[in-house]
Each structure stands twice: as C-alpha cells, then as structure tokens.
Automatic annotation (TrEMBL):
The keyword Secreted does not apply. This is Cytochrome c oxidase copper chaperone 2. It comes from Olea europaea subsp. europaea. It comes from the Eukaryota. Belongs to the COX17 family. Pfam families: COX17. Residues 8-21 have a biased composition (Polar residues).
C-alpha cells in the first residue's frame, strides 16, 4: 500500500516547539527536574487525610488536612 503524508496539526507543532524550548505550561523557566509534583509530595499525610475524609467526612478531618497543607508548604508548594 502507498504511504500517505503525515500532517501535523498546529497544536501538535505548538506543543512540540514548546517542548523543544524547554518550556511548560504555566512556567516561564521550565520544570525543575528535582522538584516533586504536588501529587507525589507528602505521601504519608496525604494518605491519612484521604482515609479520614472517606471514613469520617471532611469536617471531622481538619487536623489531617492542616497537617498535609503544612507538609506541602514545607516542600515549597504555595497552598
């Protein structure tokens, strides 16, 4: 069978050029490879917070929610 030419949409080209330049969404200087993502930071307090909220509801878990926020701030996140 004959091959069809591959056409790149503008969004793919835009994302590729952004990637080539080392940029990322919302960051002018690009991501810091040493910095954790917020979803991966403070796994212990996150687990305790999540378990408490599922079992008892958000209102009963202020202690664990605050502990997780404090941990995230200590990791450098602005929450």
């Amino acid at each position: 069978m004959g091959r069809l030419p591959i056409q790149h949409s503008p969004s793919v080209i835009s994302l590729q050029s952004q990637k080539d330049q080392g940029g990322s969404e919302g960051s002018a200087s690009g991501p810091d490879p040493k910095r954790k993502k917020i979803c991966c930071a403070c796994p212990e307090t996150k687990r305790l917070r999540d378990e408490c909220v599922v079992e008892h509801g958000e209102a009963a878990c202020a202690k664990w929610i605050e502990a997780h926020i404090k941990c995230l701030r200590a990791e450098g996140f602005n929450v």
